[in-house]
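User: Predict the structure for this protein chain, please.
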Amino acid sequence: SGSRDEALRDKRARILSRGLPKQKPIEGVKQVVVLASGKGGVGKSTTAVNTALALAANDSTKEVGLLDADIYGPSIPKMMNLKGNPGLTPKNLMRPLKNYGIACMSMGFLIEETAPVVWRGLMVMSAVEKLLRQVDWGQLDYLVIDMPPGTGDVQLSVSQNIPIAGAVIISTPQDVALLDARKGAEMFRKVHVPVLGLVQNMSVFQCPKCKHETHIFGADGVRDLAKTLGLDILGDIPLHVNIRETCDSGQPVVISQPESDA
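Assistant: Here is the predicted structure, written as structure tokens:
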């Protein structure tokens, strides 16, 4: 009975795998790391931007790129202080815009800043495919992908189309955010993407006057989830006005205040 069940499982897996696209590396890119969250508003894009800058700052010999895969709400152009349209190569590939040594590509470079993207799923998938395949990244050691929130079409398409070295899940310690963060981690496991660990964002607020610390979104929720899932905690980021202000002004904290605690 056990061997029959195992044979059935293998058969199902083979049938399902037939419908999946073949993974094809992005030309010139050695390692792809995706930063994701189940829920929006947990600071994922801020963390993605600072992660890309930190990878470059830690080793100046490494070339780093940043892809904004959030079609509906692209925020990388503002955070990386980039404007304008990408140029084209003779092979009709888009050239990424560059700032702080990071090559960036985003839907935000292709539409007006205030224009909403009112598209159905198929159009979104086509845009994601173009951002993945029709960009001349040159030679990159790391491509950091800022994923949209949720576990939908974009996440599946990216995970199934390109080999991913690992995923990082961003969450606040709040119970509502943790529910979705868990779903995000489980989704990557289902599509066989290694989950590198979790980042606990907005973990504590320190009053700038009296230095009293308040856990606005709860304490250690992400740490508890990491234990449950058997994953590492990669970072514990405070809720700090400097982190928000520097990203809003297009001068992320890693580049503008590298010696600060944040």
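The chain has one domain: 22-256.
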